[in-house]
Amino acid sequence: MSMTMSEKILAKASNVDKTNAGEIVMANIDVAMVHDLTGPLAVESFKKIGTKKVWDKDKIVIPFDHQIPADSLDSANNHIMMRKFVKEQEITNFYDLNQGVCHQILPELGHIVPGEVVVGADSHTCTHGALGAFSTGIGSTDMAMVFSTGQLWLKVPETNRFNVEGKLKENVYAKDVILHIIGEVGVDGSTYKACEFAGSTISDMTISDRMVLCNMAIEMGGKTGLVEPDSKTLKYVNTRSNKQFEVFKTDLDSPSLTQIAIDVDDLEPQVACPHNVDNVKPVSEIGDIEIDQVFLGSCTNGRISDLRDAAKILKGNKVAKGVRMLVIPASKEIYTKALNEGLMNIFVDSGAIVCNPCCGPCLGGHIGLIGPGEVSLSTSNRNFKGRQGSPEAEVYLSSAATAATSAITGKITSP
């Protein structure tokens, strides 16, 4: 019987020949990730279980990215706790300060390959499906069970396959595509479903672009985001990882598969308006929205391509008076590339503030928070009330190009 990518991967992980959407399976986990914010609760729960040693010290990845350097005594204590756990358990893959955002560095450092089951105590773990893995966010207490056993109960999801066709216009990017899709289906349009992205538009995209799409699958309720591996995937993976892997693809006659056509030929730059990610409009239709802060970064759009797009626009220009612009590369690798390419000089000369690789204001718990009545334009993935600071502030979401253009004009502006 025909199966989707998710069904095939979960069948392999649970040592059975086939799975059907809706079934509960006990899956063997290939990679488990916690960071400095979600790790402490997972560790506390792990200790309550009473297990002395983690199931596999080489399959656990612990990056610090949410509150680095420590911004409070609480976060400093969390860091101390996690460092102690890493030492006690002899965790192999521990990334302390300045390595970057978890969802960026796991693929960069070769931890993600096609066909694996990846779990992370962070909802945007679905990013890694861009490399053909079944990757999903779980709770910290669930992670304690993974630490103990290396397994987790999972319900096999149905699949929404978005067949994206058309050639993107100039200054229209993957971020505009995913905002458009979420605007069409709604924040609950793919609840507990695997969101596959396919079609000629996706084939033309880089791995970084595909990561943008999969990153935001959770914003329409998705259990994971997925792109079938192709030659680009294999080149990326083989240059970064020495792990063995198996490639899975969806059978188009699978009973649990729903196909949705998306045409992007006429798509223009999009923006998600407060306070929901599906409140999406073309930038040309939102009117005159003045901004106080621009945030270029996050696990969605803090990659080198985003920094290049923004620098191209900012070069020779100045950030508008009264506007703060934060540039936060998603990883040390990206930071170094931007430094070597002279992009940092462009950002600093324009009046932007460049910060160390981290999550920054995205989570509303670290640098660059916005105050009551302020408006932020962000390249991140969520614009819920209070997400980046005050619940009396407003957050809009856009591509890096729209963000950079708007930083110059002082209001949300199409590139």
Automatic annotation (TrEMBL):
<dbReference type="GO" id="GO:0046872">
    <property type="term" value="F:metal ion binding"/>
</dbReference>
<keyword id="KW-0028">Amino-acid biosynthesis</keyword>
<dbReference type="InterPro" id="IPR050067">
    <property type="entry name" value="IPM_dehydratase_rel_enz"/>
</dbReference>
<dbReference type="GO" id="GO:0003861">
    <property type="term" value="F:3-isopropylmalate dehydratase activity"/>
</dbReference>
<keyword id="KW-0479">Metal-binding</keyword>
<dbReference type="InterPro" id="IPR001030">
    <property type="entry name" value="Acoase/IPM_deHydtase_lsu_aba"/>
</dbReference>
<dbReference type="InterPro" id="IPR018136">
    <property type="entry name" value="Aconitase_4Fe-4S_BS"/>
</dbReference>
<dbReference type="InterPro" id="IPR011826">
    <property type="entry name" value="HAcnase/IPMdehydase_lsu_prok"/>
</dbReference>
<dbReference type="InterPro" id="IPR015931">
    <property type="entry name" value="Acnase/IPM_dHydase_lsu_aba_1/3"/>
</dbReference>
<feature type="domain" description="Aconitase/3-isopropylmalate dehydratase large subunit alpha/beta/alpha">
    <location>
        <begin position="7"/>
        <end position="285"/>
    </location>
</feature>
<comment type="pathway">
    <text>Amino-acid biosynthesis; L-leucine biosynthesis; L-leucine from 3-methyl-2-oxobutanoate: step 2/4.</text>
</comment>
<dbReference type="GO" id="GO:0051539">
    <property type="term" value="F:4 iron, 4 sulfur cluster binding"/>
</dbReference>
<keyword id="KW-0100">Branched-chain amino acid biosynthesis</keyword>
<dbReference type="InterPro" id="IPR033941">
    <property type="entry name" value="IPMI_cat"/>
</dbReference>
<keyword id="KW-0456">Lyase</keyword>
<protein>
    <recommendedName>
        <fullName>3-isopropylmalate dehydratase large subunit</fullName>
        <ecNumber>4.2.1.33</ecNumber>
    </recommendedName>
</protein>
<dbReference type="GO" id="GO:0009098">
    <property type="term" value="P:L-leucine biosynthetic process"/>
</dbReference>
<keyword id="KW-0408">Iron</keyword>
<feature type="binding site">
    <location>
        <position position="299"/>
    </location>
    <ligand>
        <name>[4Fe-4S] cluster</name>
    </ligand>
</feature>
<keyword id="KW-0432">Leucine biosynthesis</keyword>
<keyword id="KW-0411">Iron-sulfur</keyword>
<comment type="subunit">
    <text>Heterodimer of LeuC and LeuD.</text>
</comment>
<dbReference type="Pfam" id="PF00330">
    <property type="entry name" value="Aconitase"/>
</dbReference>
<feature type="binding site">
    <location>
        <position position="359"/>
    </location>
    <ligand>
        <name>[4Fe-4S] cluster</name>
    </ligand>
</feature>
<dbReference type="InterPro" id="IPR006251">
    <property type="entry name" value="Homoacnase/IPMdehydase_lsu"/>
</dbReference>
<comment type="function">
    <text>Catalyzes the isomerization between 2-isopropylmalate and 3-isopropylmalate, via the formation of 2-isopropylmaleate.</text>
</comment>
<dbReference type="InterPro" id="IPR036008">
    <property type="entry name" value="Aconitase_4Fe-4S_dom"/>
</dbReference>
<keyword id="KW-0004">4Fe-4S</keyword>
<comment type="similarity">
    <text>Belongs to the aconitase/IPM isomerase family. LeuC type 2 subfamily.</text>
</comment>
<feature type="binding site">
    <location>
        <position position="362"/>
    </location>
    <ligand>
        <name>[4Fe-4S] cluster</name>
    </ligand>
</feature>
